Amino acid sequence: MMEALVEFNWMRIPWALLTVFIVFNYGFLMTALIQKIAARVGRRHGIPIWQNYIDLIKNYALRTSITHGVMFYLGPVFRLSGGVGLLLFVPTIYGSDMFSNFSFAGDLILALYFVFFGTLGMALGAAESGHPYSAIGITRGLSQMTAAELPFALAVFAVALQYQTLSITDIVAAQQGGVLNWTLFTNPFAVAAAMMSFLGSMMRPPFDVVLAPQEIPIGPPTEYHSSFLAMMQTNRALFPIAKIVVYMNLFFGGAASWPVLFLKVFLIYMVSAFVGVVFPRFRVEQSIRWFLIWAVPLGILAVVLV
Amino acid sequence: MVMQALYDTLKQRFPLGELTVQRDNLAFITVEAVRLYPLLRYLRDHEGFSHLVLLTAVDWLEDGQFQLTYLLNNRAKCQDVGLRVMIPRDKPEMESIHDLWPAAATYQRELREMFGIDFPGSPRLEEEFILEGWHGIPPYRRDFDTLAYARETFRDRPGRETRDPAQHMKQQLYGDKGDV
Amino acid sequence: MFELDRSQYPQKKPDGTLDIDLSSGKYLKLWQGPQHPGITGNMAIELTVCGDEVVEGKTHVGYLHRGFEKLMERRTFMQCFPIVCRICVPEPDFNEYCYAAAVEELAGLEVPEMANWIRTLILEMGRINSYLMYLGGQAGALGLGVIGQWTTYVRDLMLDRFEELTGARIYHMFILPGGVRDRLPEGFAGRMEKALQEIESTLGDVEKVMFHNAVFKKRTVGVGVIEAGWVDSYGITGPNARAAGVAKDVRKDQPYLVYPELDFELVTGKDSDIYARADVRRRDLLLSVDLIRQILAKMPKTGEVMAKLPNVLHWKIPRGETYVRGECSRGEYGYYLVTDGSGYPRRVNVRGPSYTHSIALFERMVINANISDVAALLVSLHTYPPEIER
Amino acid sequence: MIRDVLSPFTAWKNLFREPVTIKDPLNERPGSARYRGFHQNDLDKCIGCGTCETICQNGAIDMLPVDGVPAKLGDSGLRPRIDYGRCCWCALCVDVCMTGSLTMSNEYKWIESDPDKYLYMPGVDKKHWDNAELGYRRHEERHLSPGDRVDMPELHAEERIGSFIEMVKGYDIAQAQLEADRCVSCGLCIASCPAHMAIPDYIKAVRNGDYERGVQLLYETNPFSQVCGRVCTHCCESACAARHEGDPIAIRWLKRHIIDQVPQERILQLIGKPAAPTGKKVAIVGAGPAGLTTAFDLARLGHAVTVFEAQAAGGGMTRYGIPEYRLPYDALDRDIAVITAMGVEIKYNHRVGTDISMQQLETDYDAVVLAIGLHQGRSTRIPGSDHPQVRKAVDLLRQITTGEKIDVPKSMVVIGGGNVAMDIARSMARLQMQQYGEIRVTLTALEDKAHFLADPVEVKESIEEQINILDSRGPQACVIDADGKLLGLKTWKVLSIFDEDRRFAPKYDPADEQIHEGKMIVEAIGQMADVSLLGDALTEKLEWNRGRIQIDPNGRTSEHWLWSAGDCVKGPDVINAVADGHRVATSIHCVLTQQEAKI
Amino acid sequence: MKEELLKRIVKTPDGQEIEVDPLLDYYCQEGPTVQPPAYTAIIEKLFNWARSESLWILGFGTGCGAIEMRPLMTPRFDAYRYGIQWRPTPRQSNLFVISGYLSTKTLKRVIRSYEQMQGPKYVVGLGSCTINGGMYWDSYNTIKRLDDYLPVDVYIAGCMPRPEALLAGFEELKKIIRAGKAEGANLYAKNFEWYKANQKSVIHDWDMPDYNW
Asked: Which ipTM did the prediction report?
């Protein structure tokens, strides 16, 4: 590791930025596509595929914005840096020199940290906005997040134990050589626990009580607007994909090329949409209970089995 | 006939006023204000009129009276009876019935706001219900002129004018012809 | 195992009111509405919450108050007819019917039979619309948006039928004192049948996705229970009462229009929770579909649609008062009309079922509810604010 | 449980179904056939009655003049302008429209940044939906105001033919209120009434049962309500908005109804006392409607009025020209009694020209009004028309009124197709019935049935009374036998009446010749004034216009002291005579008071 | 004024006492200012295009017209196709659809919601009642002319306008935005005094600061 730092290849920085750029664009298009697919279930066409770009420009183009304080301003920044950070410290394309980013420096723990980092930053920022809906959203978000992270942590623990490493790159490497080498098949319980957690962290029903437009519209980001919102939109394209990349790397054999990555990310993303479209949302204590009853035992089982 | 029978039964217990049978299953009975509460309770507990359909008021400005109408429904027999209570317009006050039907409190709040009729003891009577920041005559009273109020409070869009056909024809066809 | 004992909050003052000191920091005042997507229309609820639990709720209405009852006092009997339907947007026809029936009763007008059939048809079509809207809203309040997409679509099919029959989508203004405006257009029954089939098939999907849904059940079963004893004290009518097992339906109790000639059984439920109410409404919707089929099959082919009216420009009605009711999708809808012999109503009072449901009843039910359930609870009472404040 | 988890996923089947979205909702969705969209107005059909404005509960409709649509009788020239900032598309205006001109298209999109642009005059402001085929139309039957007139109770032909009893019974209160209820109070009729009576107002009085108010309104514009309530030519009814789709309101009968409801003494109280005397004196020649109206007006203003009447009773042509079954004499007497109660002195049996000269009047009075009517019948001048049994209708009618003995023929022929012809035919029929028990009256008219000059009701009633009406027959000669006895009338079929220049030049078909049997022939083809009373000097001095005295718009002749009014200058019509009387009275009053001021 | 808006001393859970003046503490007191467009015309053009293609409607059904919003956002008309979306919070919306009549009570909330929206923001008046009072022209409780209280960009006639008419209205609004003429927010800032005076003349219990973004 130390050598790696010494031999730091400065070319990695533009490559990393390119990664961010590709992922950002892919994220925009893919979320739009998923929205279109969900719209199809509702028997309509849905937004144009480029709608996210327009919305982004629009939000940056707004002439006024107000702030509720420093933390309010920092909230989206934290969120975005959480997203970017996560993306940069996981190997996006396995085996690719250009798109491995700084994964040499980051391990599972760091990734987990980044997953949580944005949420916490957001919590601080949104709390500053002073809106009761934000506050309620945050309390719900944090408690649900905690519950949802628990099985994920267990799954990661199981995987780390299984492959005896904390390096994501190594974990991916261990899964190469055929579909059956994927953690999905080598440790299905861990994957199941992690996917349950994944559902919980994607802010889709049945675990979207944090946003819940019908009761606390729309939770933490209630007060965010203009460029703050634009920043969060950007993050919304990056962060889920970064997270999915982690999942993909840990459980689904990683991706050795962009097309494979696109496909796998899309499919994993679709899992949450597939469930989300057809279920209403749990109350917060119901979802916590659900995680504790269904996901955590699986996680523990996974750890135990390893 | 059924309603007449009910009236006769009630008459034995309470002094009642005029009976108006509107339909086979709907009648209105005039009652004195002081008799209302026990009568309502009797109707609810002993005659099966357990559903308070509505409670509202009518402003008889010319007679200086408010008419309060309590409409009760007997679900089993599918009958309605309306009790009319006349109270003086200059001292609009009536006994509250919120303890007979909790839902009546809402009606009483509305009457208080829209007619200015007081129901001492009814919960949240002082709170604004429908209107906000209203001053002046309660709007449902007959002497409140909504058009005049609207004209003076809000602005209409200019550009409107109209002619009376007869006047216009007079002016066009014969108004200043023939006469000196 | 995660239920907290909250019985200590809030304490009661000696006079029975709740001792809520906002500055203690224990409680939070939370407004939902009027600008709030979870609220059914333009109204507001003011919640005092302690943690996730509501300790007190107040309904605020009046955002849609236009003073109909006052405005009608300065409009002639015919001029009132276009404005009454505005009292309830999603199901305006009951206003038209109840108002027309009250006027007809006091003026002694006999309505032609054909008109009564068409009126019944319109009322049932309106009921379907209203229920479809409700189903979408109920699912949407819990985050199941796709139901709303489907039901709004099939509701639109019904609106198309409304449009060809009455000439408007929302405010039909078709039932006027004396009868209805026109007969059914050519080939109406066939197109209606198509729409009904689409509605039925969509309802099948709705049943699968919404009613046989584990999460939906989790959120609604046992939540928001109306006790049977409340039905009378809170003036509960319609599906809310029927879901509590009280078979109360004006269509059966005091049959009006052509309901005596139609063959139907009341839909009732037992559990009186949100799920039961939704289910009663779904089955009631299917009943309406059936009723429309019956009406179209049984209705006469020809006949007058309007009674002979006097010149409506100076139509005077002798002194009298009456109350006319109908069973709308939310419960008992009624018009109390007082005339004084002039050309204008002396007083009109509109009894919308939401009046008691969304204020007295809701304020009672919301106590000790979870904040997350408030929107679903309100929707499950199926309230339309404009009929509360008029 | 498992089912509850899995069954929601069935929703995903929609992924493979085509969305139900409308591709191009902006263009693909025309409103339905009954859609209540934006308004259309057929400007030619619209009569500007303003009923739409009256019914609009939103106060959305204004009535405004439009370039190129002049006001004319029966059309106010106003057209509705709708404020789409008020309209609620309830279509009550369409339902209530008296002509069906106002309709709605099925267009419904109108976007505007400037809210002031929503004042819209359908038909005038050109829009792309002006000719839209679909859209809301009124139901075939007009529901909101009844279209059929309340039938007037009348004597049946059998009952009435034997006597001169008034045949029209008059409405009772319920009937009158029903009829008055039909009125939409648009006021289009006022302009077409020569006297501009306040028609909607007095109809309203009937509706409200306020007959005293009604009488007051009537007397404001017409002292001959008894007469006009029976025999008025009711131009108003031809301008009535209700006429377009249904019967016009029976304005005439309602007027009669009002006056029938109030006792004579009460009428006198209601119209009040005349003003203080002015000391001015006015002479009026002729106690017909024009003369007496002038007299009434001037007397109320305080002038001393003397009326000179050649006959033994007042009323002029209304008494001597209109048969009793249409206008009973006591009704006429009641009207005249009100006028005399105002202080008007009527000198009966005073024939100006013989009993007193015009010069005398000129010197004795401050102003003189000539209201002598049209009492001379015109002649056809066909061969044999100088036979003693060939009579003029006016003379015969006068004889019937005065009760002179008439030699009633067993059969007779009437020439003429106007109201006078009907009157004489029906009068003679009654006399025949009384005397012989059967009716043999033939009426020949130049015009065909569709163009009869007489009131259609008169024609209908005449036929009911067994009068043989023959149309398109041109009289050619009175057939007289060798003994000089009148046998009948020879007529030819009329081919056309007017030439291309609309001049009177009848063409006949001599092949179609008929002889109508009759022991008497009555000419009823028009009347003229008997101006012999003027005297030569005055006749010379006055200016004339095609046989009538020339007058200015106020009825003043070329002589400053002489006015002329009524049939003799305006042609035969009661209500016109009344209107003329008002006009002349106003003019005289004005002149007299101006004189006063000068002194 | 409502009790909760009065100045008061509040005791925090940890025993501190703080003075709270809700009108000052909870709201911003600064008035709105006119916001200039972007420096270069081409950027502003791009921005205007983006603004026009991304209309986020505030989910506030102020009147009956709201009922036609649902069909608009659902399969039949699917306004999402046209870049129209629905937002539950005023902060994130830039199009306020006033769906019909406004009672004075609602007007108060509408003003607050409008002021909380970020500029440039647009207002669409739906139906007759926003133009000249509509069928409530003689009501004591509804405003008659929306443009007295808020700057309005587009009106859609009808009672109520159908979803198709709404779409046509939005298309018209897009044109106006693209042409750079939808400067309602600046108009509001410029004529702030006039708007406030109008608002206060009908809202009798004015218990909020003059401007509360």
From this structure: 0.87
